[in-house]
């Protein structure tokens, strides 16, 4: 799975890079509008490999907004996660969520939940992407 994620994430990163300023072509379709919230349907704490894991279930609007590469709604979506699971408010969990928000629909469209684990290490963005948004290996190895 990891090698698949890496290739897809590399392609998605290139697709989401800001385009240089240019004059708009009136014949090109306009950008698709970002859907309105709510972006998160529900969350559920579970055990994965013997350790705590938060499953985040995005709504259709959340999947669509994240799939469009819309970053601003990611803050709204994270706020929704925290209203449903206040104990998820850690830097590592936010970084995992942000990675899933930016890349999950490219790497694995329609994945049922985005899984965030508080035991995962806080890492830089490149390491996060290279790890498929789940750095630090499995919980069993910790």
Offer a few descriptive terms.
142 residues; alpha+beta; 3-stranded antiparallel beta sheet; 3 strands; 42% helix; globular
- If you compute it from the alpha carbons, what radius of gyration comes out, rounded to the nearest whole angstrom? 16 Å
Order of helices and strands: HEEHHHEH
Tell me the structural class: alpha+beta
Task: Give start-end ranges of low-pLDDT stretches.
Answer: 14-22
Helix content: 40-55%
* Distance N to C terminus: 20 Å
Count every helix, treating DSSP H or I runs of 4 or more residues as helices.
5
Q: What is the overall pLDDT average?
A: 81
Number of strands: 3
The protein's oligomeric status is single chain
Largest sheet, strands/sense/barrel: 3 strands, antiparallel
Name the shape in a single word: globular
Instruction: Estimate what percentage of residues fall within beta strands.
Output: 5-15%
Strand order of the largest sheet: 1-2-3
